[in-house]
Amino acid sequence: MAHEISCWYMRGGTSKGPFFLARDLPADQAVRDAVILSVMGSPDPRQIDGLGGAKTLTSKVGILSIPDDGAADLDFLFGQVGIDNASVDTTPNCGNMLAAALPAAIEAGLLTGDDGSTTRRVRTVNTGVVAEITIETPSGRPVYDGDARIDGVPRPAAPVTCGFLDTEGSLTGSLLPTGNARDTVDGVEMTLIDNGMPVMIIAAAALGVRGDERPEELEANVALKARIEALRLQAAPLMNLGDVTHKPVPKITLVSPARAGGTLATRTFIPHDVHTSIGVLGAVTVATAAVLPGSVAFDVATPGEREVRTLSIEHPTGEFSVEVGMEGTRVVRAALLRTARLLMRGTVPVSPSIWRGPAA
Fold first, then answer.
1. Cα–Cα dist 134/87, whole Å
2. Is 60 helix (H, G, I), strand (E, B) or coil?
3. Which entry of 12, 63, 188, 221 is 20 to 30 Å from 202 by CA?
4. What's the average model confidence in pLDDT over 307-329?
5. Where are the alpha helices (DSSP H) in the chain?
6. Does 333 map to a domain?
7. What is the pTM (predicted TM-score) of this model?
8. Cα 137 from Cα 256, distance rounded (Å)
9. 276 occurs within a structural domain
10. 62-74 pLDDT, tens per residue?
């Protein structure tokens, strides 16, 4: 008989995927990853035999547990699941899926919600980043209907507030891993920065594009994608990331002047597909660069001058507002609004040929 695993399928921000309890998965990492690949239907470009959506944004999983060190209320392990390759990468953060972690934990009975609203500290195990997440919980249960709107999601929902602290150097060890606000790699100026997500920021004009193209137009530009990947492979070691041939970081964001009254316009490669919007922590990192004198983003941005300022990061399907708190030229806090929704709850059957026994 198949082994049944409890599952809560959630949309978080502009991503979606199943959430599992760590205790329900095999303790052995290789077996756990084999189970996840089977559940998602990978490797297969259509993921036809699993829950995956055949896109980077819809081939994600979350694994939840209660930390035993008191550093947070909830631990969230994010997995980026390969689509046409058998990989489960737990290296990067995902701020969109993070937005669904707290409601998923309450749905699963792992945490108890407060009456009215619930605020908990959620740690992304991948990088150790801790976010303070607040959701609406009348009678202690998450609600998903509401008036909050985020671009890239077709209907309004209840707000999820995410406040990030101490996100500098999440994977690279420092905000500017080279020590510079601007570097030149193979003749192209870029800012290599990590404030929750390692990102290579390049002026769109430096690569011969406008920066306001539709994602499908950039996807069809084979020469551009090859150039970006070549730059990524050269820049990654400078960011202390080593060989990233088979890794989803760093992301690449092309920046240009805003078109719709925002702070700046972006087009993001994640890293081989073009994002239809922009990732949460990617937006935080780009916003940080936008207020950093000397950066490539600073050149095209209109970031304002207040100690607490809201930056509007334009992307292909709208904009993403990031509120940043400044001390001098340093970003010390970033807060943003997401939404989340429970799409399905139930169990996922796993073939006994893949399952090797429950976690101890």
1. 32
2. strand
3. 12
4. 91
5. 29-40, 95-107, 215-219, 222-235, 280-290, 296-300
6. no
7. 0.81
8. 40
9. yes
10. 999 999 999 999 9
Task: Output the CA torsion sign for 59, 333, 115, 69.
Answer: positive
Nearest to 97 by CA among 147, 51, 47, 57: 57
Q: Tell me, what CATH number does 135's domain have?
A: 3.10.310.10
The number of domains in the chain is 2
Among 12, 62, 84, smallest CA distance to 272 is for 84
In a domain, 335, yes or no: no
**329-349 pLDDT, tens per residue?**
788 889 999 999 999 999 999
Q: Tokens 């979350």 correspond to what residue?
A: 62
Q: Which domain holds residue 227?
A: 183-327
Residue 261: both structure tokens together = 């009254």
Shared-domain flag, residues 9 and 88: yes
The two structure tokens encoding residue 267: 């087009």
List all residues 6 or more positions away from 47 whose beta carbon is below 8 Å from its beta carbon. Answer: 40, 41, 53, 54, 59, 83
What does the block give as tokens for 193? 């920065």
Q: Phi/psi at 31 (nearest 5 deg)?
A: -70, -40
Torsion (CA) 40, 44, 45, 48 in degrees, nearest 10? -60
How many Cα atoms within 13 Å fall on the side-chain side of residue 298?
14
Contacts of 348 (CB under 8 A, 6+ apart): 4, 5, 7, 18, 39, 51
